[in-house]
């Protein structure tokens, strides 16, 4: 049986069932909590305890919409022999407090979701956090105090964005990260501190960062020193700074210790006892957890079978909990013992829903282009019931962002394809993270050019070396990745079909009709609008839509605030006008990324069927 028609033990229904996403672990006393996003419950996000199971019942869902990106949405606090949970509830965006086994009670006003909250830290009788207030086209943010009795007051404002507030061990200072338009948090941010006096913030001052140095994730080592991630060297590396602003690099390494801060709550490092901290570093295809000694400026890697660690980890004392994954493991919650520098135990296993023999071999390759090497993660077509002889169908995947990347780790959606005989090429095109500032900055002013050119170079290379069947090359991507998909289809005839998931079709509309967090993103990717309106038109796939001749399947959420349905509808209408083979699916109630089981199942099955028809073969669903 030919690749693409292999029988797979993975149905779309199994993928959806196994596709519970897990994140945001926290050590709470002698317990460990985390969040599960469950497709079978309509994408409800449930806080789960290792010892007690589900901590919030339906209809509650722990998910904030600050920046329209969600993130860490809860805080667990030990309260004598019981505990307290502060969480943002998805439906109304209010903060709820749940004490012990009691019922969650709202402690913020009902604003119909216009006030959103994130980044909770505990203070006496309540929490401090980030508040975002959205009223029509206006949006403002502050650091605020929310007391358990519902009293709210503003601590500080004056910047468009706030993140990562932390109180010093002696309670005298608050540190945080801020940035302002037109910058994104990977362009330029600033690390501030202010003195805390009688509950008020005074004497704010800048310690690190600039418009060209995006600093991240500050944590207090002691009462006068912060450890944080700085990019002055061209790589996100660990530095320290004291309250007088004296900075010093701790580790100088050409790998990334940081990340693009798309969501509030990401963690770059956690402080351990004995003036040490734990962090993630290493190349994209082999990330590692490391324990760093601040005084000796040395680090020790923790040996493990895993190749990826999520930047959502949490530490308490010598214990660290983190979600880790590898070639044949999905995100697995493990506990690291810093004293023994080892993984102590697995807290939440997440095995493949099929035998490990079905796991695809994963590797990173470099593809030459005129001025740099394109980074590509390859997931090989693999099924123990069949043998690969010669080229296979190729599925090119383009990540979102575009400031983001894909790591070398197992993915349930990918196995759906590789076990059927598709080779996957995950293109970390110019502008992707994980390869230093120089590679990330390649896309400045060049989005809509270098990204799709890198995709085409990848396809041509994989055909040339005999990996890809030139008649069975497909492409898929979502959001910014969908933009690259559309441009790739328009500017080449290499593809048998494409799949566009809530992709950007027209840049002018995106620049004038998107949410605040990304409203100035294109200033760096394209140029300021409207000054560079001609570039926005030139780079838009819709401008060149008359060149489209490739079959296209489109998937869109009806409630998407980031890439509105109108963007997908534009290309649907192009296909209708030109008589191009196409399908269009609008999933009711879905946002920017699908979380409902029925949406996940339909999109996978229809995508596979559509590609098979376009490529002239008969895949088995």
What does this structure look like?
15% of the residues lie in helices and 38% in strands. The chain is α+β, with helices and mostly antiparallel strands and 621 residues long. Among the domains are: 267-353; 356-615, Alpha/Beta hydrolase fold, catalytic domain (Rossmann fold), CATH 3.40.50. It has an eight-stranded mixed sheet, with helices on both faces.
CATH superfamily of the domain at 356-615: Alpha/Beta hydrolase fold, catalytic domain
Which CATH architecture of the domain at 356-615 is right? Answer: 3-Layer(aba) Sandwich
Mean pLDDT across residues: 96
Unreliable runs: none
Tally of separate helices: 10
Give the overall shape.
Answer: globular
Salient structural properties:
621 residues; alpha+beta; 5-stranded antiparallel beta sheet; 10 helices; 15% helix
């Amino acid at each position: 049986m030919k690749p693409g028609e292999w029988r797979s033990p993975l149905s779309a229904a199994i993928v959806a069932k196994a596709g519970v996403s897990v994140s945001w672990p926290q050590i709470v006393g002698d317990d460990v909590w985390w969040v599960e996003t469950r497709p079978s419950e309509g994408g409800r996000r449930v806080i789960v305890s290792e010892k007690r199971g589900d901590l919030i019942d339906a209809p509650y869902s722990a998910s904030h919409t600050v920046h329209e990106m969600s993130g860490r949405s809860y805080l667990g606090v030990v309260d004598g022999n019981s505990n307290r949970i502060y969480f943002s509830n998805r439906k109304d965006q209010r903060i709820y407090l749940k004490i012990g086994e009691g019922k969650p009670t709202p402690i913020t006003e009902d604003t119909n979701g216009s006030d959103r909250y994130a980044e909770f830290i505990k203070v006496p009788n309540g929490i401090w956090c980030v508040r975002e207030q959205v009223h029509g086209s206006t949006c403002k943010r502050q650091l605020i105090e929310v007391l358990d009795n519902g009293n709210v007051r503003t601590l500080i404002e004056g910047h468009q964005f706030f993140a990562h507030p932390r109180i010093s061990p002696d309670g005298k200072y608050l540190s945080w990260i801020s940035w302002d338009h037109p910058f994104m948090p990977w362009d330029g941010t600033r690390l501030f501190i202010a003195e805390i006096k009688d509950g008020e913030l005074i004497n704010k001052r800048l310690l690190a960062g600039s418009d060209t140095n995006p600093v991240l994730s500050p944590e207090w080592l002691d009462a006068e020193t912060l450890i944080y991630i700085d990019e002055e060297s061209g790589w996100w590396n660990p530095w320290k700074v004291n309250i007088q602003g004296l900075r010093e690099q701790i580790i100088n390494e050409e790998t990334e210790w940081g990340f693009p801060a798309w969501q509030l709550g990401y963690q770059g490092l956690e402080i351990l006892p004995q003036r040490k901290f734990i962090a993630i570093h290493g190349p994209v295809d082999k990330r590692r957890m490391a324990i760093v000694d601040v005084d000796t400026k040395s680090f020790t890697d923790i040996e493990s079978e895993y190749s990826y660690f999520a930047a959502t980890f949490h530490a308490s004392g010598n214990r660290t909990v983190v979600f880790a994954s590898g070639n044949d493991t999905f995100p697995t919650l493990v506990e690291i013992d810093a004293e023994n520098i080892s993984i102590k135990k697995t807290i939440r296993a997440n095995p493949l829903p099929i035998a490990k023999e079905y796991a695809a071999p994963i590797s990173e390759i470099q593809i030459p282009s005129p001025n740099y090497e394109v980074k590509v993660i390859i997931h090989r077509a693999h099924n123990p019931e069949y043998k690969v002889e010669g080229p296979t169908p190729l599925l090119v995947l383009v990540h979102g962002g575009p400031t983001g990347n894909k790591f070398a780790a197992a993915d349930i959606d990918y196995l759906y394809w590789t076990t059927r005989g598709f080779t996957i090429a995950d293109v970390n095109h110019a502008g992707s993270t994980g390869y230093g500032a120089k590679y990330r900055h390649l896309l400045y002013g060049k989005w809509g050019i270098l990204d799709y050119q890198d995709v085409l170079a990848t396809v041509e290379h994989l055909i040339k070396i005999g990996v890809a069947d030139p008649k069975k090359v497909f492409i898929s991507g979502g959001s910014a990745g969908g933009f690259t998909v559309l441009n790739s289809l328009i500017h080449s005839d290499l593809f048998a079909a494409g799949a566009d998931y809530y992709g950007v079709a027209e840049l002018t509309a995106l620049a004038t009709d998107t949410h605040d967090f990304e409203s100035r993103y294109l200033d760096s990717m394209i140029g300021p609008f409207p000054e560079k309106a001609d570039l926005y038109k030139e780079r838009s796939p819709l401008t060149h839509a008359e060149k489209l001749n490739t079959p296209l399947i489109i998937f869109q959420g009806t409630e998407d605030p980031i890439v509105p349905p109108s963007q997908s509808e534009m290309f649907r209408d192009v296909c209708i006008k030109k008589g191009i083979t196409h399908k269009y699916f609008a999933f009711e109630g879905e946002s920017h990324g699908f979380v409902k089981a029925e949406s996940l199942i339909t999109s996978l099955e229809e995508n596979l069927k559509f590609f098979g028809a376009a490529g002239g073969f008969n895949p088995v669903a």
